[in-house]
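chain below, 322 aa
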Amino acid sequence: MATSSFFYPVQQELRSLEHNLKAVAGTRHPILYAAAKHLFEAGGKRFRPALIFLVAKATAEDQEINTGQRRLAEITEIIHTASLVHDDIIDECKTRRGVITVHNVFTTKIAVLAGDFLFAQSSWYLANIGNLAVVKAMSKVITDFAEGEIRQGLVHFDPSVSIDAYIEKSFYKTASLIAAGCRGAAMLNGASNQTNNNLYLYGKHMGLAFQVMDDVLDVTGSTKSLGKPAGSDLSNGNLTSPVLFALTRETELNYLIQREFCSDMDISKALFLIKRSGGLTKAQDLAKEQVQAALYCLHFLPRSTSVSSLRELTHFIITRLS
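prediction:
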């Protein structure tokens, strides 16, 4: 099922967001402009800003989205996109969403500068949002990204890494931004501390479920559906939940990881072992647990079309194919 059906209550806001994101690239330097434009034209589901719009409506008495929340949605997508540029450089990815990555279209130096430029733009927009608590919450996300990247880099090709360490890293790299964005949207409506905290937890559990399913798709997906080769994370030494669960059943997988997939057929063999082990099922169960926790956090909100979309999105996460 397409995400657009869940985003129906905020379709108009998402269309405006697309226009505004391209305006972000309007730097006076033509190379930075081209790099940023290349990123935003690659598209994406705009899952993060859509969540912010839905939370904004769900916590507003008049179901309206204010200017600060519109800007927060843009900031969230800019931060996310900037992090992808740097991730692609670190992981040496050739494609992203089926499009050649920035550092391959231009150069690594230009890609680093483009990512830095976007982080700087997000900080400028954030400083003008007019709510210090939201500024503090969102600013921490950028440090969380760096923390997550370092944690991931320290355990490349390390089969002894625990599921708890994987979840903690996934929070820093993915869930932190979604959690802060959901809380920020509620805060900009003057919601209570309890509401703000519940929506933070909703975003956190949604982000973790999203990341776990992303890791499942890295094993089960195709190059066409993923926009990058299957097993890309694995070949870079990023041991995700399906891999960690599989390691308890497949001793040969441990051997392939420790030799860092040096043979041409190692990745294909590792993917086969992960599928055979039942690791995918355990990872999906982990995602379902996170989804149930996210749903629980919505119980306090009054019924509305926006809340219904927030609930439906949790189910989409664990059934999505790409």
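The chain is about 70% helix and 0% strand. Strands lie at 95-96, 99-100.
thats it, cya
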